[in-house]
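Handout, tutorial session.
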Amino acid sequence: MTLTVTDIQLPSVPGGSEGLTGVLAVPDGPGPWPGVVLVHEAFGINDVMRRQVVRMAEAGFVALMPDLFAMGGARKCLNATFRALRSGEGRAFIDIENARAALAQRPDSTGSIGVLGFCMGGGFALAAASAHGFDAASANYGMLPSDLDTAFDNACPIVGSYGGKDATLKGAAAKLTAALEARGIVHDVKEYPTAGHAFLNDAPSGPAALRFVMSRFMGAGPDPVAAADAWQRIETFFGEHLAAPTH
């Protein structure tokens, strides 16, 4: 499949990042296709994240990853972005909605849009699953909302993938499953015993100085076997829940 991959400028919206950019990948052909907003990990958009965008387009989705650090990079934006994640509101959520609207308005879009996140982005995917206009969400080793009793009221279907060796998210898969079952939310959540944090990445990510620490305490790094199964589940889940056009 021939793909078109471009860096794009998104429109300015009140409360959002000034000069918001993103990486867009579009499958070859006339479409229309469902869309997926990808939310990057805490290290921002790097080559590993760009390849994740391409992967979703290869699976048949118009894929867009907005740069949540557009107003200064990870050093300046990381703390504010995590504050938004913990509070459930703020500039990052406005940027994610901006990306969702941009995909929904494309002539090659069916209007069915999912959200998929990694690490920090997985937390945003869970937070955006309720009342944010998405039709499905994929949370990959994302932190859980602080209030699991109410966080998933009216949530869209959720597919989640976690690594059993990730000490920072110990028991997260079981807790997420219980919360979704209590609310009757369609879900597919799985923990991979051999995997740690960031196991869906195809190469180590982040500053080299942090990789040893992340590997030691988070089990971070690629796990091709677990990743292949997780991607299969994600693509199948999104294929089912984003299949019906909404316009």
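The second record follows below. Compare its token runs with those of the first.
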Amino acid sequence: MAQEEGVSLSENEAASLAWLIPAAPAVAATALRAARLAGGGAEATRLAVEGLARAVNGGRLPVPEAPAAAFDFAQVNADADLEALTEHLARPGAPRAVSLLLSGPPGSGKSAFVRELAHRVGLPLLQKRASDLLDKFVGGTEQAIAAAFAEVREEGAFLVFDEADSLLFDRAEAVRSWEVTQVNEMLTWMEAHPLPFACTTNLPERLDAASLRRFLVKLRFDWLRPDQARHAFAAHFGCEAPAELEALATLTPADFALVRRRAALAGAESDAAALLGLLRRECEGRAGGRQPIGFGAAG
């Protein structure tokens, strides 16, 4: 886009801006056009993107995202073959109006998979958190939901709602009228949306029953299996996993990425015992363990 607008950006500068300020393609295009008119480069683009992103996000900057590592299907424990599903949805002529519900514990790979899927189907990703949409004024949340769906239609993007249980909670438990209309607004747009979109949640039991029927594909993510944990240990740390790793029943892919950064700070990247201790600390206080998962794909 920078090349098309005649703005000089290196690949590193463009990548840094993309991760620092996640925004819709139209925001980036307008900012680059403004930077070109101002005769600027990366810094002028950053200022323009920040200003536009604030304007369309209620005065706040979108939450920055960490640069994505290469997605490894072998490090995600789901109740469906994610690689086969991705190939099916990315094939030429595949249906576009596909809705996905991804549930499971934090860090289990839900958002990472959605990013990979959007990349493979060739669509930019527009991520909305519940905090981006919930409004203290009556009707404000419904307007924000409608605006999000309208934005991705205009941009041809893949929409993902994080913390979807805050937007699609069970209406049987609603005590205020706006709580019902908020869910109704989501359901109305879900029915008619012509592009792929996904919802992620850590609390699927809180979702409205009618919303569950709207999703064509339901995927349940879980803690890593022992073989996956060993694979993740070798992939992240470059050494064989100690036997004691198998006792850690609540590991997620995010734990290994976090421990790798912590180990780098402590100079313990090659100390298997120290790495195991750091992973054990990540598991402390987590309830449960590996549970049978059967929230399978449909449609």
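Points raised in discussion: The chain has three domains: 2-56, 73-222, 226-283.
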